[in-house]
Design goal:
Layout: H1 3-23, H2 40-46, H3 53-60, H4 65-73, H5 79-101
C-alpha cells in the first residue's frame, strides 16, 4: 500500500471518529459531572430524554461504504485497511449500542 492509501485511511479514521462521536451523543450528556450523575447509566435512569440514536445510526452508516467497496471489489487488501475498519466499527458499536446494553 502506498502513502496515499495510508493518508486516506488515516483521514477517514479521524473523520469517522469525529462524526460517530458527534451523532451518538445524547442531548443531555453534558449533565454528567461525576457528583450527581456519574455516568451514562445514571443519565438514562434519572433523566427522561429523547433517544435520538436511531437518527445517528442512519447518518453514520454511509461512513462504512468506502471500506465495504474496498474489501469486496478490490483484489489486494492490506492489514491497515482491516485494522482501520475494525477499529471504527468497534467504536461505532460501542457508542450506539454496547454502552447502553451494559447499563442493564
Amino acid at each position: 500500500m502506498r502513502w496515499r492509501g495510508f493518508t486516506l485511511g488515516f483521514v477517514w479514521f479521524w473523520l469517522s471518529i469525529l462524526l460517530i462521536s458527534l451523532f451518538s451523543m445524547q442531548d443531555k450528556e453534558w449533565f454528567i459531572d461525576g457528583d450527581g450523575i456519574k455516568n451514562i447509566c445514571d443519565l438514562i435512569t434519572y433523566i427522561e430524554s429523547d433517544d435520538i440514536r436511531d437518527v445517528g445510526i442512519v447518518i453514520t452508516i454511509p461512513l462504512f461504504f468506502p471500506f465495504i467497496y474496498l474489501l469486496i471489489w478490490k483484489k489486494k487488501h492490506h492489514w491497515f485497511l482491516y485494522l482501520i475498519f475494525l477499529s471504527v466499527f468497534a467504536f461505532w458499536l460501542w457508542r450506539f449500542f454496547l454502552r447502553y446494553k451494559l447499563c442493564l
